[in-house]
Specification:
heterodimer; A: 112 residues; mainly beta; four-stranded antiparallel β-sheet; 11 strands; 0% helix; globular; B: 111 residues; six-stranded mixed β-sheet
Chain lengths: 112, 111
Amino acid sequence: DSGVTQTPKHLITATGQRVTLRCSPRSGDLSVYWYQQSLDQGLQFLIQYYNGEERAKGNILERFSAQQFPDLHSELNLSSLELGDSALYFCASALGSNTEAFFGQGTRLTVV
Amino acid sequence: GEDVEQSLFLSVREGDSSVINCTYTDSSSTYLYWYKQEPGAGLQLLTYIFSNMDMKQDQRLTVLLNKKDKHLSLRIADTQTGDSAIYFCAERENAGNMLTFGGGTRLMVKP
């Protein structure tokens, strides 16, 4: 158990809908990263937050947004969902911005 | 941009050594990582190596880094069926701290 908790584990929703994925980092970790894992794109970095502030942005679509709250948990919001958004979404956390990242179990999103 | 490449598949017999290879392009990488992903599970950090090291050993795992050739390898000694999984190599940018992953190598261990 990495100590990073993601909910829900599975999510099935229809195209055009909006969903929110939640991540609770390890106790004391300030950095949260979001990754998308799909069969065709592999593991893609989406966005990083550090202590509530956006730190780095990767290949995140405009339909997607994220935030990190004062209690350091983070949410990834995916809207106007398309079939191609079906993937595993991972959250990872790290103590600071220069340490190894520990991953949650992921949320499997299926868009039908 | 950065690129991390791995071979797709490796098959070994139980008890043999496995060597999983990875190449990367970013010469400013500071840390290089190996993660393991079992079916339906998340990514488990196995080990990492700092770019000024050549080798790191941790029980059955040996990481070798050839910085000149930008080549990283993970050797698993006495491979067991429980080692069957996908292994991801990742490098961390010097700035920004995001991890860039390779496509993963599926290791199959035959009894």
